[in-house]
Amino acid sequence: MRSCGVLLPVSSLPSEYGIGCFDEAAYAFVDKLKAAGQKYWQVLPFGHTSYGDSPYQSFSTFAGNPYFVSLKEFVKAGYITKADCKKADMEGHPEYVDYERVYNGRYAVLKKAFLNSNIEEDKDYQKFVSDNAAWLTDYALFMAVKDANDGKSFIEWDDDIKLRRPKTVKAYLEKYKEEVEFYSFIQYEFFKQWDALKAYANENGIEIIGDIPIYVAYDSADVWTNPDLFKLDKNLQPIKVAGCPPDAFSEDGQLWGNPLYKWDYHKKTGYKWWKDRIAACNKMYDMVRIDHFRGFDEYYAIPFGDDTARNGKWEKGPGIDLFNELNKEFGEMNIIAEDLGFLTETVRQLLKDTAYPGMKVLQFAFFEDSDSEYLPYNYTENSVVYTGTHDNDTVAGWYSELDKPSKKFTKEYLMLADDSNICDAMIAAAMGSVSKYCIIPAQDYLGIGSTARVNTPSTVGNNWKWRLSPKAFDKRLLKKMAKMAKLYGRFNNVEEAEDEKKAETKKSRINHV
Questions:
Q1: Do β-strands 287-290 and 207-212 pair in parallel, antiparallel, or remain unpaired?
Q2: Which of left, alpha, beta for 485 (phi over 0: left; psi -120 to 50: alpha)?
Q3: Virtual torsion, Cα 466, 396, 44, 345, nearest 10 deg
Q4: Which of 6, 242, 286, 363 has the lowest tally of Cβ within 10 angstroms?
Q5: Mean pLDDT value of segment 240-268
Q6: SS3 label, residue 209
Q7: pLDDT digits (tens, 9 = 90+) for 139-195
Q8: Closest Cα partner for 404 from 392, 395, 412, 415?
Q9: Residue 120 and residue 40: Cα distance in Å, rounded?
Q10: Mean pLDDT of 56-78
Q11: Could you say which of 329, 391, 419, 424 is catalytic?
Q12: Can you spell out the DSSP letters for 30-99?
């Protein structure tokens, strides 16, 4: 069934206190998606972000971002007051996240809520800690020790705790008991609030598309707790790190710096860590986008310590073996493969073998005399079309920077007389394509320029900041979106879908009898 949705990071919601979170702004956005006939809300990774605030570099692949916990829920519970939130002074510019201000203010309020919660006596909390014991305590201890070391990377800690010697771990759990409890409390609240929001979305016919970064951050609980999973030396320093080779866009390539997986070891364990990771994602999302899918076929390995990606080499990944094991564990999985960039025949074969839908990005299609695979007439049904992604400029920003020949081709292809309707025309081209799924960034529906760009790859300091105006997605725009969804056969009629579901259930029961 053809469907459509909107890409909007949770951090971009117009919540109070400086950053988007799981409060009424999130519930209101679900309502707007439903009114607009959308089926999907695509979000960015939910991980506890580290330095640089990128959701693709987090302190844990299992833990949620403390920023997304709604402080208003703590006010309702009586843990804190509105005055506490106001005093913390977290509000910056209404259209951008001021991460320094949010960090300095929010953690103080979170800590006060924890101290007033008496959470250790809560049976639901105790069950959460028990159910998530495989990762929660290690993550919470990692964060507690990091705080005690002024935020330094675990590689700079004393050897006894850096190397996780059992007596030291036990002693530190006792020494930092309150801090470990604090971080566990935040995770409990994160997942309690997210589960409620996701349930509300699902009840209203909206499904959530999540995002898995292929790699984890080096300075993370994942690496500290499970060093055997990564290519590290005896001192836990990376041997090689991840990135991309030089190309037309970057003569030095991209040096990401993430540690690389020791795939032969993963295979010996039956890919247990990956199974745990996918299981966690299956609980959090209805569908998952896997970032940098090419890395499972071949990955670019750069010698640790190099200043550029020039000296890297391609090495063989796990290929279909990993996905066969995941299929045995989970059956058919709702996965989107991020297959952008230069693709070899072996990557294309892996995508074909998994049968996952790949991604099509319209902005990649339009340059002079193009016959790009990203032009709609080259799509297959088993794909997800985007006007752009979180790594692209907005359509309005992108189009303003196009050279004249490319603009001419774009207007001819889209049958545009002038430049005034470029966003609507691009959205229509995506919606009208044969792709089964169509996801449009919120900024493109709003027609906003480059000031609303979420991320510019290979840059730091000005990314992941854009926020939605509280007045955005008004009734007029929602009607327009709904009309377009109907026009191109993508409208999500929730009531009709519920009737069909009930009919199928009734038919199944009759057949069973």
A1: parallel
A2: alpha
A3: -150
A4: 286
A5: 91
A6: strand
A7: 999 999 999 999 999 999 999 999 999 999 999 999 999 999 999 999 999 999 999
A8: 412
A9: 36
A10: 97
A11: 391
A12: HHHHHHTT--EEE----B-B-TT--TTSBS-SSSBPGGGS-HHHHHHHTSS-HHHHHHT-----TTB--H
Residue type at 177 in one-letter notation: K
Residue type, position 465, single letter: K
pLDDT digits (tens, 9 = 90+) for 75-124: 999 999 999 999 999 988 889 999 999 999 999 999 999 999 999 999 99
- 178 counts as catalytic: no
State the amino acid at position 70 in one-letter form: S
Q: Which of 338, 339, 393, 444 does the annotation list as catalytic?
A: 338
Place of tokens 């295979």: 267
Strands 335-337 and 437-441: unpaired
| The pLDDT value given to residue 247 | 79
Q: Where are the beta strands (DSSP E) in 163-239?
A: 207-212
Verify whether residue 211 is a known catalytic residue: no
Which of 291, 325, 339, 444 is catalytic? The answer is: 291
DSSP 188-200: HHHHHHHHHHHHH
How high does pLDDT run on average in the chain?
A: 94
Q: Which two three-digit tokens encode residue 271?
A: 């890919």
